[in-house]
Amino acid sequence: MSPQYRVHVSKDYLVFACAHFVIFDAHSREPLHGHNYRLSITVDGTLDDYGFVLDFVRMKKLARRLVDSIDHSVLLAEHAPRLTYREDGEMLHVDYEGRPAYMLPVKEVTRLPILNTTVECIAAWFAERFKEEFTALGYTNLTMLELDLEENTRQSAVVRIPLGDS
C-alpha cells in the first residue's frame, strides 16, 4: 500500500461575504443577515509521478474561483421546502410559507442547489464543486477531501467526502 499524504490550504483571500437566512423548523426562520465566511481545504492522496498530491497553485486558484463566484451575494436554498421563488424582470420574489418575504435583485442572488443555507449545507456544496473539478482535471491519486467552512471565528462546519474510487 502506498503512503498517504495530506495537503492543506487556508489563505486570507479565501474569505467571502454573503447574506443568508436559515429555516429552523416547520414554522420558524432567522432574519436575513450576513457572515464573512472563511474556507480551508485539505486533500488526502498518494503522490503523482511528479511528487505531488495536488499542486498548491492549482488548488489555490480553484478555491479562489469558487469563493469569488458567490462573494457578496445573497445565498438562497433552491431545494428549501418552505421557499418559493418567482422572477419578475430584474427582481426575485422570495416567498416563505406562501407569504412574501423578500424582493431582491436577481444579479445579487446565488441560488444554491441545497436544502438550507446552513454552514453545513454550504460546505457540502463547496466540497462537491471541488470533487467535480478534481474529476474533470483527471486526478486519480486523490482519496479524501475535507473542507472547513467558518462562518464566525471558531464556529465552522467540516465536511469530508471520498474522492476517486474510495
Give structural notes.
With 166 residues, the protein is of the alpha+beta class. It has one domain: 6-pyruvoyl tetrahydropterin synthase/QueD (Tetrahydropterin Synthase, Chain A). The protein has 2 helices and 11 strands, in the order ββββαβββββαββ. The chain has helices spanning 56-70, 119-136, and strands spanning 5-20, 23-25, 28-29, 33-45, 73-77, 83-88, 91-96, 99-105, 109-112, 142-152, 155-162. The strands form 3 sheets. A 6-stranded mixed sheet has the order 9-5-1-4-10-11. The chain has a 3-stranded antiparallel sheet with strand order 6-7-8, with no helix packed on it. β7 and β8 form a beta hairpin. The two termini are 14 Å apart.
Relevant terms:
single chain, 166 residues, alpha+beta, Tetrahydropterin Synthase, Chain A, six-stranded mixed β-sheet, three-stranded antiparallel β-sheet, 20% helix, elongated
